[in-house]
Write a structure and sequence with these properties.
single chain; 149 residues; mainly beta; five-stranded antiparallel beta sheet; three-stranded antiparallel beta sheet; 8 strands; 3% helix
């Protein structure tokens, strides 16, 4: 009887013109420490920005809902506890999302409760990179010389 050395399963997705569209391609993002954090359909730069803090908005409801996998956790020991942030004359609740390895804040939810998703999940600019352990250019804001121009 012949010996089976390995068993391979071939899987193939449908091949159509959408697979060549860069806006439909999956993009993978990492924390600054190198930990995998996000897989998203399309580039991060194509997401809408929130005017108050320039964070990227991942819509969780509505017709422009995004499909994504975010590997971020709440603060250790304080998963359901958030912070209240003052935005001008108004206040906003934020449940911070952290990198599971280094605890860097990478985003936040605006709906109270552990694991509860609001209308959008917000990702802070400069908290994610497309190459492992490489700091993105927007991680520290604008350089001082360019802010005055």
């Amino acid at each position: 009887m012949p010996k089976v050395v390995s068993r391979n399963v071939v899987s193939e997705s449908k091949t159509d013109d959408d697979s060549k569209d860069p806006s439909k391609a999956l993009s993978i993002h990492y924390c600054l420490c190198g930990e995998f954090l996000l897989v998203l359909e399309g580039p991060l730069a194509a997401l809408p920005r929130r005017p108050t803090d320039q964070s990227y908005a991942l819509r969780n409801s509505g017709d422009k809902k995004k499909v994504y996998k975010l590997n971020a956790v709440g603060a250790p020991g304080r998963e359901a506890v958030g912070v209240v942030v003052r935005r001008g004359k108004e206040f906003e609740y934020q449940r911070r999302l952290h990198c599971p390895r280094c605890q860097l804040i990478v985003g936040y939810e605006t709906k109270p409760g552990d694991g509860q998703k609001g209308d959008a999940t917000f990702l802070l600019p400069g908290g994610l990179t497309e190459q492992q352990s490489k700091v993105p250019s927007d991680a520290f804001g604008e350089p001082e010389g360019e802010a005055e121009k």
